[in-house]
Amino acid sequence: MASHSLLVLSMILVLHSIISMASASLSCVLQCESEVNLHLYLHQIASGPGTNQVVIVTSSKASDFGLTSVTDWAVIDGPNPATATIVARTKGMQVQADVAGPGWFNYFSMVFEKNSRYNGSSFEAMGINFQTGQGQMAIMGGTGEFAMARGIIKYNALPNPPTFQTIKELNIRAFYVKPADTTSGGAIQ
Ligand SMILES: *[C@@H]1O[C@H](CO)[C@@H](O)[C@H](O)[C@H]1NC(C)=O
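A: This is the predicted complex of the input protein with 2-acetamido-2-deoxy-beta-D-glucopyranose.
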């Protein structure tokens, strides 16, 4: 009789530890990721009205190797800056990091603003940003709704921009884990 109760007791203990192990591992399962695809445009004005970048380190090299600027480019929802709405800005820096040049290394926070439904959230991005043609930059992280973001920004420079300006088409694809306490306002994008 005594050994029978002992057997039942040990079975209960084993069951209990299996159940608590299972619930412990369940509570560690990651929240599902969300995916976002945004089709936007980047508007860079190096000189003239609305200038949104400034050189902070000059270079004596013919290739401008080392030239460094602070950037606050506008991210707009259409290719024509005159009619498009600003939805974000890229706050960061641009460094000419190619000895032979040009090879513009960029890193920035793309901070969404009040005209975006992602107002206040950001993508943290870096990569080589050619002045013309196509390329890619990596999304290394994010804040707000875009917490734990990772993804890619594919860009394609539009031909014949106004003097001292570039306009790039951006195809942004990212995965992120939206925190439960995040609220997003706004209307556009
Ligand atoms: C955008 O976010 C800022 C900062 O959190 C907030 O003050 C503002 O009210 C927001 N605007 C809209 C339209 O949601």
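The pocket of 2-acetamido-2-deoxy-beta-D-glucopyranose is lined by residues 114, 119-120, 185-186 (CB under 6 Å). Residues 151 and 174 are 4 Å apart (CA to CA).
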